[in-house]
Write a structure and sequence with these properties.
Length: 78
């Protein structure tokens, strides 16, 4: 089954962009991509989490096939 690559629910997963999130420990900007949920602060090593927005992974019955099983499992497990 082929999926339309313009699905807005999966766009930030298939075409990730970087976002800066401030470290809660040292306030350093930490780059976390939209297809990731966490990163380590390069300044102090604290795990920094990006606010998880609702996505197609939460509701679409085709999400596993659309974004791929590895990405689906990584994002669904959090």
């Amino acid at each position: 089954m082929a999926f339309d690559k313009s699905c807005p629910g999966a766009r930030t997963i298939r075409e990730p962009t970087p976002e800066d999130v401030n470290c809660p420990s040292c306030d350093e900007a930490v780059e976390i991509w939209t297809d990731e949920l966490k990163a380590n602060c390069p300044s102090c090593g604290t795990k920094v989490f990006r606010e998880q927005q609702p996505s197609c992974i939460d509701w679409c019955p085709h999400a596993r096939e659309c974004v791929g099983p590895e990405v689906y499992e990584r994002l669904k497990s959090v």
